[in-house]
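Recall the central idea of this unit: under ordinary conditions, the amino acid sequence of a chain determines the structure it adopts. In this exercise we apply that idea directly, starting from the sequence alone.
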Amino acid sequence: MKVTYIHHSGFLVETDRFYYLFDYEKGHLPKMDVTKPVFVLASHGHGDHYNPKVFSLLSDAGMQQIRAVLSEDIEVPADMTALQVSPGKKYELGAEYGPGKEVAPEYYPKLTTFTSTDLGVAFLIEEGDKLIYHAGDLNDWVWEEESDSYNDQMTKDFRKQIGLLSEQLKHREIDVAFVVLDPRQGKDYDRGLCYFLESISVKQVYPMHYWGKPDIMETFLKEHPNYKHQIQRTE
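Accordingly, the structure predicted from this sequence is:
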């Protein structure tokens, strides 16, 4: 499995059979195998997570099999077909939205969605024995300026979704996870990521959504050195 950081919350994951392009906003796309299917996943319609130009970029690059998997809050471009997904649902990324007849149905990826604490969904993809998680904007969005009741409810809602993720995994280990680490939260910047790491078994975690301030990863590792073997620096 190969992971390429694009920008902000945007990542490209390549497996033996597929590409998964998550939450593309902007940035350079690497050279890709034009015959390999690419799933374009957008967790929600905020401008820092979804740019409809991604489809023309992939088309111009010669990609022959482009499949859109969009949160239900995103308006599907008029000239394309997309699978629109809702929170708390399960999908098989096959048939109309799958890779085509040249790949057997048993290799189609399975998708489970979780309810974001902001807008849209988080994604868990199961392809064979591989598990890929992208949080979108599912995070413990605690803010100093908000009321205690707001922050308490936020934490409760976030932890509920991580609990559902844990139940879905059934003690399996996620191979690659993309999780929010946002410096705008001040002293609470690490709440979501720490709880995720405490609750979920995961091999590699790529912090994201850090608004051009990659030093926050070093800060996190200095404060939480026990996670240094899991945290992957994006830049």
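The chain has a mean pLDDT of 94.
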